[in-house]
Predict the structure.
Amino acid sequence: MPDVTTTGSCVAGFWSSSVIPWIVGFLTAMFAEPARNWLLRAKLRVSFKQEEDCVARTPTGGGSDAVYIRLKVVNERRRMARSCRAFLVKVEKQTRPGVYENTIYADSLQLAWSCQARGEERRPMDLIHGVSQYVDVISTVEINNTFEVHVAPMPLRYRPLFSAHAKTLRLTIQVSGDGVDPQLIRIVFAWKGNWEKADIYEDPL
């Protein structure tokens, strides 16, 4: 009659010496690289401050000036953040101090990257580590004393929302890319009918 103890020991030895190491090696090979990519993936930081880089005055030609309201976007890690874009995802309007209500805005229209060649400003951008890039959100213009939201295309139904009448809008912007966590930021734009004196500040989410 076979020795059950000896047979059991042989089976256990087979598993411990052959099968289990193979399974561990297989799982390691399958999941190590995805886990490494996840841990080392690019990370975006989106910010706005009342400083010259985010509130930038610039000539437009013909003796007129404009003020560009911009978001600062930085990739904080060494891995490239690929195909990044910025979208206006929500627009609210202030109805009384501190109270905002939803508007008819129901799209995710793309905003423009600053200082790009004409026709290139909405192309996906690869962000390398530590280099600041900027997103144009709004500009106020001297020549006609109005403002422009830098989305394209601008549907006709939204033009009354962004007209030059005095108003306070709260804009939520999302910056996304391939393999990075989307980042949201919210800014308040209070338009009082004067291109040089609009109030702009970040409203924490």
